[in-house]
Amino acid sequence: MDPRLYALLVRGDGLVTRRDMMRVAPAWTIQSAWRAGRLVRLLPGIYVDAALIRDTTADLPILARVESSLARRAALAYTDRRAALSRLTALDVWGLRRQPTGEPVHLDLPKGSGLRGRPHLVVRHRSGFAVAPPQAVTRGGLPVTRLDRTLVDCWPLLMPVDRSGPLIRAVNDRLTTPRRLVAALAEVPRMTDRAALGGLLDRLTVGCRSPLEIWGHDHVFTGPGMPTFTRQARVQVGARTIYLDMFAEAERVDIELDGATNHGDPAEREIDLRRDALLATVGILVVRFTHRRLMSNPTQVRQETLAILAARPRYPMIS
To answer: What is the pTM of this model?
Structure first.
């Protein structure tokens, strides 16, 4: 290969644009490298070192036959940096769901850009979109749509069983908030299963932080006789800050819901026992229900909860 082209490939980590090549070498040099199989065209005007093609026999679009990081850089170069990674690709960049090989690269572009999708590349044109805050941010050196809008946009693209996990994790990891997600949903008036997403955001807004807590909220811990629990209540005990799953403040009862995989480790169980004992020093009774009990006998769990609350003295509410 011409040393000038090779130097550009090294500088671009295997990726080069035709425009940059034309600045240093004549067109026939580029054509020769392409015909010799040293360069491969991924997208119009975008070339890659042929050694980076993963499988030359695969029946896949050429963009799908390079590493995902290279495919994303190629897609952004194709748009001349006028786009941001979006939807399922952005969700991967945010670290909330790994994008499998078969899924295309997703890009958002300003409306009227004139660019269109290609095999393994899906583009969406948005009115008023700009590759700048607040619509887009830089993450890992790549422009990507902001997280709350990314999560909302991915909702109809994921299988129903996979939809809630990224949103719950993003809120639990404090990457976003239910309020920001509600605002992002307001930007998308039409969407498949929009009502279901709104329902999930309602549960996150009141403090539910796991599928089990959401199920308990809907089927057990609301309705006649149940107090309005404060979810994820913050309690200070000495120098330690503790967050309570569901806190009945007047009765000073904390309801903890233990997931199906929790507490198999004796060390984890010991941590819970010490935490519960510490809360007892400030008059808070901790009541734990396992995933199995909650799911198999919700009526009994509800009855036990009401009986425990009724038996407790009522304390003045903290103003």
So the answer is: 0.87
